[in-house]
Design brief:
The protein is of the alpha/beta class. Helices cover 22% and strands 24% of the residues.
């Protein structure tokens, strides 16, 4: 069985929209695109290299696929390009687009059903990058095995959030953490079942 791992850049207030640059996703009038760029350091590069140095396949929503497909095939000399270009890309889209990036495969039919079936197959881990709308579907169907959350020391106040309204309440277990020189906290979490509540009040 294959693990499905969500990798997401987040602000301190939980926004995941357009971390990579202006115009990446300006839906809803979002004007803070590129908020993650100036925090990058050597440790963060090492963590990303480690994640992509093992065999993996990518799972992408249509918008994230289009962003990455417009860049990586034409940046083959850039650090990190080869793993992304070589990996199989499973794309969730209802519009049946033409997928021109090499090794791209359309998930036919319902995305949750298609990915549940993929997880049952043999093969490398499934890494979800970006793809906020798709992640909401994966969480609702309890298909996420691990979260790699990169939390940046910035607040924005509005934008698409990873854990938005309608998120199913649940516990998470921290299994690894690192902190960059720029204050980015990189935590790896696994689902830990239902929330166990309690009270500090005596009696």
């Amino acid at each position: 069985m294959r693990e499905l791992i969500v990798t997401t850049f987040l602000t301190l207030d939980g926004v995941m929209q357009a971390p990579g640059g202006p115009g990446e996703d300006d839906s809803g009038g979002f004007a803070q695109g590129g908020w993650s760029v100036n925090y990058w350091d050597e440790l963060m590069g090492q963590v990303m290299d480690e994640a992509t140095s093992i065999p993996f396949a990518m799972v992408l929503g249509r918008t994230t696929y289009d962003i990455m497909a417009a860049y990586w095939p034409h940046a083959s000399e850039e650090a990190g390009a080869k793993p992304f270009n070589d990996a199989t890309k499973y794309v969730a889209s209802r519009s049946h687009p033409t997928l021109e990036w090499s090794n791209s495969v359309l998930i036919d039919g319902d995305a949750a059903d298609g990915l549940a079936a993929l997880k049952q197959d043999d093969g490398p881990e499934l890494q979800v990058h970006g793809s906020g709308n798709l992640i909401q579907t994966l969480m609702r169907h309890e298909l996420v095995d691990r979260y790699r959350l990169w939390v940046f020391p910035v607040v924005i106040g509005s934008g698409k959030r990873l854990f938005s309204e309608g998120t199913i309440p649940s516990g998470l277990k921290l299994v690894d953490s690192k902190v960059s020189t720029t204050g980015v906290v990189i935590g790896t979490y696994e689902p830990a079942g239902e929330i166990v509540t309690g009270s500090f009040a005596p009696g």
